[in-house]
Structures are given as C-alpha cells and as structure tokens.
Amino acid sequence: MFVSGNSSDVGSCSKTAPCGTLPYALSNVTPSRNVIAITAGQLVPASTVAIDRPVYIDANGTIIHRNGVVFSVAPATAVTVSNLTLTADGGNPLVAATVSATGSLRLYRANVTGQITTNSGAIAATKSTFLSPMTFNVDGIACTSGTVAVFESVFQRVWVAGANCQVTIEKSRFDMLNDGSVNVTGGFTRIENNLIIHANELADSMYVAGVTPGSTVRFNTFVNTSGLASDGVALQCDGTAIVTSNIFAYNSMHPLTPTNTCPTRYSLFDSTALSEQTLGTGNQTADAMLFFVDRARKDFHLGPNSPARGKAEPGLGVADDIEGHLRPVAADIGAYQAP
What we know:
Layout: E1 2-3, H1 22-27, E2 35-38, E3 42-43, E4 49-51, E5 55-58, E6 63-66, E7 71-73, E8 78-82, E9 85-88, E10 95-99, E11 104-108, E12 111-113, E13 115-119, E14 122-126, E15 129-131, E16 138-144, E17 147-151, E18 154-156, E19 158-163, E20 166-170, E21 173-176, E22 182-185, E23 189-192, E24 195-198, E25 206-209, E26 216-218, E27 221-224, E28 235-237, E29 242-244, E30 247-249, E31 268-270, E32 284-286, E33 292-294, E34 299-302
Parallel strand pairs: 1-2, 2-5, 3-6, 4-7, 5-8, 6-9, 7-10, 8-11, 9-12, 10-13, 11-14, 12-15, 13-16, 14-17, 15-18, 16-19, 17-20, 18-21, 19-22, 20-23, 21-24, 22-25, 23-26, 24-27, 25-28, 26-29, 27-30, 30-31, 31-32
Antiparallel strand pairs: 33-34
C-alpha cells in the first residue's frame, strides 16, 4: 500500500492511486498485504497513530510529527519501520512512540526526536539516530520489564534506561553534554564496543547495577572532552556485571564508583584517576595523550603508541570492533581495534 499525504482516503492505496493518511492505510493491512510505502515528504497525524496489526512501514525519508505521541504499538503486534524521521513536537516528556506489553517496534535507519517507551514490550534499533531537542540529556529509550536491542546507532543528548529489562547495546555512539548514557538496573545486560563521549567535567555517565549473571560491560571507550580535571564518574556499578577491556579517558579522579564497588580488569585509565580506582588484573594507567589518534578532534581510534594495543583480556570471543574490524586473539582495549 502507498501513502502520499496529499490524496484521498479511498480505495486500496495502490501505487497509482495512493491514499492520504497512514491510519487509513493501516486499516487496510492484511496478513498477505502488510507493507506500507510512504512517499510523502511530511505527515502530521491529527492524533496518535495506533498500530494494531503486524506491518512493515518504509517511510522513504518521510518526517512524521505531531504535538504528542506519534505511534502506539498494540499488544502482540510486531512493527518494523525504516527510513523514517519520527518527531514528538510537544508534551513533557517528549514521547515519540509507545510499545505495549508483548508488542515490538523495530527501527532501521530511523531518526527519532523524543522518547520511545515500553513496559514489557520490545524495542530494537539498528543504524538509527536518537536526538533530544533539549540542551540537557533525557531518556531516548525507556524500558521496564521488556527488551531493548541497539546496534550501530547514535544517541545525542539522550540515553537508554532499563529496569529489569534485557538490554543489548553494541557498536553505538553516545555523544552527551551532561549526565547519562546508559542506566540499567536488573535484567541481563550486554554493553559492548561502544563510544561514550561527555563534554561536561562533572558528568556521570553509565550506571549498571543488580544485573543477572553473565552481564558484561566490555570493549567500550569512555571519554570526557571538557579539558578540565574533575570528579565525574564514567561507570557506576556494583560488581554484578563483568567489566573488562574498557578505556576510561575521563580526566577524573573517580572514573568508577567512588566506593570501589565496581571491579574492573584489563582496562586502561588516564593518569588523573586515583590509584585505588585502577586496581584489577591487567589494568593500566598512562598519559591520555598517548591513547588516541587525535583526541582534540574526537578521533578516538588508537594512536600508534597507544598502551591499549594488544592488552585486552584474552579469550573473550568478541569477534570485531565498533566498525566491524576483526579482533585478533591479542585484542586491543576499547571500542576500536587498531589495523
């Protein structure tokens, strides 16, 4: 079915006679005809678009926005959306989409301004961008007792929050001004091959606590670009997750939980970190000027003499890095594997 945005809602939404609105097209979705192609440049629904049946929506770069929740996904409904810009223009907080219990929303190459929330549902995002219009950080994805899977995506001033959820975040970039990147309590968690950048010297970044056995935080690069030494915490954790092979270039005396309840191993710290923060098998401390190709320009690939080279924990079985480069047996610490 086809939606052009400037046609009448009649007929079967064919390519030659597209319908005008997404709700009308959705009402015509059947198990054998369940793909909607949107050809409009912009759609402004009069109310929340309620999706109550499995559908694939290819938006072709269309912007869909309204003052309020744009999408709601019904229980037991699987929805996939690609090439869409989804924007919540109003409300506090800005909620772009809600996913009901047992429902699922998959995003591919989407741009989202506002939150996507679920309670006991599933949210997945690949090659997508989440953005806050605010000058402070807010939730981009918020999950309670559900599932979140994020791959190769970008978060700008928004974070991922999970309470008793299964959370997987891989090969993604968090570019944050102030506090937050990932906040997870309970459930199984895998946070791997991510770049987390903060620009405020007081910013606290990631919180992981009470997670189930086997949860990991590994091969991530945490950076604070403020240029001011301070006491922001890159990672707060309680020892329930395995924390290994991360770079903490945070210019902080306490890059980990100040009470030392966040044990790490085979990780690299800058020289601002207090010695009691860097204890652990295989951990190193060095001058952060040696870590990266060009820290000032946010090129966080490993420099030619980086102490992170070849010093990750062996035998972890992580096949590649944030860019898909293969990791050898003697892998590098952090998100990037040097060529």
